[in-house]
Amino acid sequence: MIKVEHLTKSIGPEKRLVLHDISVQIEQGEMIAVVGGSGSGKSTLIRCLTLQERWDKGSFIIDEVDVLNNKIKGKLKVRREWAYLEQNPYLNPNRTALKNVLIGRASQTPWWRMLTGMVRSDDYMGAMDVLEQLGLLDKAHQKAGSLSGGEKQRTAIARALVHGAKVIAADEPVIGLDPKTAASVLDTLRKLCTDQQITVIAALPIELAERHATRIWGLKDGNLVLDVSGRKLTGPEKMKL
Ligand SMILES: Nc1ncnc2c1ncn2[C@@H]1O[C@H](COP(=O)(O)OP(=O)(O)OP(=O)(O)O)[C@@H](O)[C@H]1O
């Protein structure tokens, strides 16, 4: 279980508050959509949860590890188990989808593999399994530079899974994709939650959140104003955002 208490974050020399006293508990296998207007704090929340931003205040407990007060063990846990998925994930365009999946972030990949691109056969099989799960088997040997936006996004998801992610935190993962491709990426993420108990936290537009998430968090001016199960939001709920 993941427990966030009193997460507070300010930015800039004037210490402008962008996240106010946010407390939530997250269960394994949830697909949480973060919704809210522009500047409401969605990206900052996702960046704080993936420890890319320093917290001003708050506590962050993952499986009973106090992440912020246990710097080495806590940071290592987040680094190993959490994947941060950007809007346009970085893939090496000259390497195949498979190689991109196998050769993950520098922190997760042995130096000799980064250098030589060599892989062990069991790693190869594992990566092919994940690519198959994500419907990318026929793209495994295609250069990443020639993949479509949705395929790139799914390759990045495959890379996160191959490197052991239990939580995928994604900042607007389907922005710029056509509606059909966006739905297919989100269906993929939802299936991972259901079938493999992966937890997903993703900033999404309201309509997609309503359709795909099991839970919706709504932010307004850095405040958590909504925390409901994934469903169509009512008029008054939307008015809070
Ligand atoms: N590096 C920064 N320096 C100054 N202000 C920042 C910085 N990062 C974020 N902010 C401010 O913090 C607030 C929250 O920003 P954030 O990017 O988290 O919002 P958002 O909900 O993701 O917005 P959008 O939907 O437009 O991406 C905004 O007012 C933004 O201007």
Break the fold down into its secondary structure elements and pairings.
Blueprint: E1 2-11, E2 16-26, E3 31-36, H1 42-49, E4 57-62, E5 65-66, H2 71-81, E6 82-85, H3 97-102, H4 111-116, H5 121-133, H6 149-162, E7 167-170, H7 179-196, E8 199-203, H8 206-212, E9 215-220, E10 223-229, H9 235-239
Parallel strand pairs: 3-8, 3-9, 6-7, 7-8
Antiparallel strand pairs: 1-2, 1-4, 4-5, 9-10
Adenosine-5'-triphosphate is lined by residues 11-12, 18, 36, 38-44.
Overview of this structure, please?
With 241 residues, the protein is α/β, with parallel strands linked by helices. The chain has one domain (2-239): P-loop containing nucleotide triphosphate hydrolases (Rossmann fold), CATH 3.40.50. Helices cover 37% and strands 25% of the residues. The chain is built from nine helices and ten strands. It has helices at 42-49, 71-81, 97-102, 111-116, 121-133, 149-162, 179-196, 206-212, 235-239; strands spanning 2-11, 16-26, 31-36, 57-62, 65-66, 82-85, 167-170, 199-203, 215-220, 223-229. The strands form two sheets. It has a six-stranded mixed β-sheet, sandwiched between helices. Strand 1 (2-11) and strand 2 (16-26) form a beta hairpin. Helix 5 (121-133) crosses helix 6. The longest helix has 18 residues, at 179-196. It is globular, with a radius of gyration of 18 Å. The relative contact order is 0.18. The structure holds adenosine-5'-triphosphate. Adenosine-5'-triphosphate is lined by residues 11-12, 18, 36, 38-44.
